[in-house]
Amino acid sequence: MKKTIITLTAAATVGIGTVLGGLPLTTKAASISSLKGEQNKIHSQRSELKSGINDANAKINDLQNQENSVHNEISRLEAAMNDTTSKINQKNAKIDETKAEIAKFQEDIKVLQERIEKRNVLLKDRVRSYQANGTVINYLDVLLGSQSFSDFIDRASAVATFMQADQDILKQHEADKAEVEEKQKKVESDLASLETMVADLKKMNEQLSAQRAEKDNLLATIADQKAEAQEYVVDMQEQEQILAAQEAAIQRSIKAQEAAAAAAAAAAAAAAAKPSGNGSNTVAVAPPVSGGSFTRPAAGIITSGYGGRDGSFHYGVDIAKAGSVPIVAAADGEVYVSHFSSSYGNVVYILHNINGQYYTTVYAHMSTIMVGEGTTVKKGQQIGLMGNTGDSHGQHLHFELYRGKWQYHAAINPVGIVPL
Q: Residue 102, SS3?
């Protein structure tokens, strides 16, 4: 994306330089109407960029809201996971307590089992005694062997006591067995319930962890999208700033050209209003119009010819003369550039069609321009006055000739074609 910005910046810099300078090194000189068209185009591009920036900012706000929502959901999941973990720890502690209780019950069960075993031995002895001695009959013998009623009562009470003791032993034996079974069953049930509960809690915690992982992934995706949108906004803002600078430069160029056109019109009007033929004025006459297709564009001497000069190449011929020197069209044609350039000063470009061959002539550094774009001129018709405007050192006319339309560094030597 940054590469795009650098490319656009370079392009904008070239465009701005061309617009600001109005240099004759461009393929087409910019007229006011074309500049305004370019200005409208740039304004439209800026509007599109601003719309894109607004859309991107809205997307960033939406992503931020999503991010906040996910953060809240993660906080809720973390709270639930912490609660579940706490419950798991509590249940595990309870399991440990239950296991300790089971261990204690096992000791109690051991004691109960020992008591049961002792009773089993005692009862077995009783049974053997019944079988061997006929204990029931002996109880009757005891009762019937009473010496008196009072003795019978005593013996009956004793027999009842012995029989009740046997019944109590049997009942206690059954109660102990039931107690052992009940305790064993209860602690085993409690332990199973706790282990099931812990398993359920662990499963719930795994589900919460999975949800948390999903939220983390979603959060990362949102963060990437937000970063991409923010980078897009920065890039679009840079492009919009470049276009804004270019639009401002074009607006300044339009004003400069309008001012130059107004000044040229005023100068032309002032020149037309001046009385001619006054011997005190240093007004040079235009050179006589020669025969053929071309005529000399101005009176004066050639101070610099076409070719190498001071280590560079001079793509034209300089004609210098003091005073108010008229500049004339070198041939019939149409003015298609008439403006002020930072390098060529007041300059006019004329396109000529001579026997089917197109030529372009350029007249630079004039003090005054007297023709506007679209003007049809005749050979020898005055188009301005010699001057010292733009990148110039002393009053002179810089004259260039092109075979065809103007093209950068493609001017030809006018000597031999234009009578200089």
A: helix
Q: What is the pLDDT of residues 64-77, one digit of tens each?
A: 999 899 999 899 98
State how far the Cα of 317 lies from the Cα of 294, in Å rounded to an integer. Answer: 15
Could you tell me which residues come within 8 angstroms of residue 336 by beta carbon, excluding any fewer than 6 positions away?
Answer: 29, 349, 350, 351, 373, 374
Q: Locate 355 and state its tokens.
A: 């026997």
Read off the tokens for 358: 């197109």
CA 170 to chain centre: 89
Nearest to 70 by CA among 208, 216, 225, 206: 216
Bridge partners for 328 per DSSP: 382
CB 397 within 8 A of CB 404: no
Q: For residue 150, which phi and psi values (nearest 5 degrees)? A: -65, -40
Residue 86: both structure tokens together: 């706490």
Q: What are phi and psi of 25, to 5 degrees?
A: -90, -5
Q: How confident is the model over 153-168, as pLDDT tens digits? A: 776 776 667 667 667 7
CA 162 → CA 34, 89, 135, 188, 244, distances in Å?
A: 135, 56, 11, 39, 121
Inter-residue contact 298 to 382 (CB < 8 Å): no
**Please, are residues 405 and 369 in contact by the beta-carbon 8 Å criterion?**
no
The amino acid occupying position 153 is: I
Cα dihedral angle (185, 187, 190, 191), rounded to 10 degrees? -110
- The residues that bridge with 377 in the sheet, in sequence order, are 333
Q: What is the pLDDT of residue 339?
A: 93
**DSSP code per residue over 40-96:** HHHHHHHHHHHHHHHHHHHHHHHHHHHHHHHHHHHHHHHHHHHHHHHHHHHHHHHHH
SS3 314: strand
Closest CA to 268 of 396, 388, 384: 384
- Contact in structure between 39 and 247 (CB atoms under 8 Å): yes
Helices (H), 134-148: 135-144
* More confident call, 246 vs 183: 183
Q: For residue 4, what pLDDT band results from cuts at 50, 70 and 90? A: very low
17 Cα distance to chain centroid: 31
Structure tokens at 207: 């589900």
**Calpha distance 110→5 (Å, rounded):** 89
